[in-house]
Design brief:
alpha+beta, elongated, 59% helix, disordered N terminus, 10 helices
Length: 477
Amino acid sequence: MEKNMHKMQPLSLSQKLIIPTLLAWSLGGCTLAPDYIRPEAPVPEHYAATRQATGQPADAVLPAWKSFFTDETMQQVIQIAMDNNRDLRMAILNIEKTRAQYRIQRADLLPTINASTGGISQRLPAEFNSMGTEGVSRQYTASLGFSAFELDLFGRIRSLTEQALETFHAAEADAKAARLSLVAETAGMYLQLVADREIYDLTAATLKNREENLALVEKKFTAGVASDLDVSQAQSLVNEAQTDLAVLATRVGQDENYLELLMGSPLPKDLPQVRKLSEVAALQDIPEGLPSLLLENRPDIQAAEHLLKGANASIGAARANFFPTISLTAGLGRMSSDYSNLFDAGGRHWLFSPQLVMPIFDTGRNIARLEVSEAERDLAIARYEKAIQVAFREVADTLVQRENMQTQLLSQESLVQSVGRSYQHASSRYEAGVASYINVLDAQRSLYVAQSSLISTRLLREANALTLYKALGGGWS
């Protein structure tokens, strides 16, 4: 059965201009999102420890990590971690995911144009056929067009696109924060390993010294010069050192395991086995008087602000739901009852189908959506302000610790020297037979504790500089 075909009427000038005009309006219109205003930072302009030193400009920057960590072995360890750490790799892959999600959302600003072809065959009884006879009708089509493209007259799609873009930027900032945390944690773990190795060597040397003292006391006991109590006390010191050495051996092994986890690979065999903190190049000192405005460079604060901007943009999408939605479906192609004649001159057809949907009654759904988006914006403001406050406290605590660090280190060095002299005097007096061996024991214990504390204090000084570097969002350049 032949199908009636109608010739395509030529488009008028107004019809030719309507689609480009609506598309231009859709792409160039404004959004209903409120203007973004950065909240005031809820912290003082300067830290309590440095309020008198305000000579640093607000745009001062900290050096990149390779300039801050000048020790070559530490640089090698950090670089391996940056190349292989899985947490950092996941953060970077999350950037790729959010970038793709942003591109998906942005694609809704333009129509999706598809080419399609198809055919329909159906048999109709005579009573349902306009010709009054039963028969089979066939229809073949080939078309090019788009379907249900929303004209973004009120900025709903642009607001969602802006939100997706800010989410992408937040993921970038999160990756920067993960990178900074990895650098700081790897450097800190390396320093901890070196310090534990140094304490292990100190304990091993102390054990050897105590074993020699035990042998000497046993000889004196055999000669009748020393008592059984002296032997027992010397033996107790040896046992204490043996126990401490076993604990430290475990700690050093665990430090190496954790450092390998951060590095994402085993420690290189050619990596120098540094065993003293004094052999590690000191971390670069951070100048005083840095204003709190520099916290804006912290990646976690930047991520919080991007999420706040995204929440602000989502309000525009929620407001746009109160306005009409206009969508277009359009197509141009060929139609024929015979596939062989599909592309003949007479088979042209076109379709233009605009649709307008006006919200009238939705039981308060759109109002609730707007309230949700506004509440999420307020939550994002609170999270942003909290991130600044936490960062400010981290920097302030580190600065307070730094104020007294040099005094603490000098006092501990002086303590080691004085306790060392006490141990020498106690040993000399015991050898001369004018003092009890208990004085030697006390002096030995005190010297070991003081020497161990000195190593820990030196580690604390380096950790303080490292913590301040991280708290300020170091490596901005």
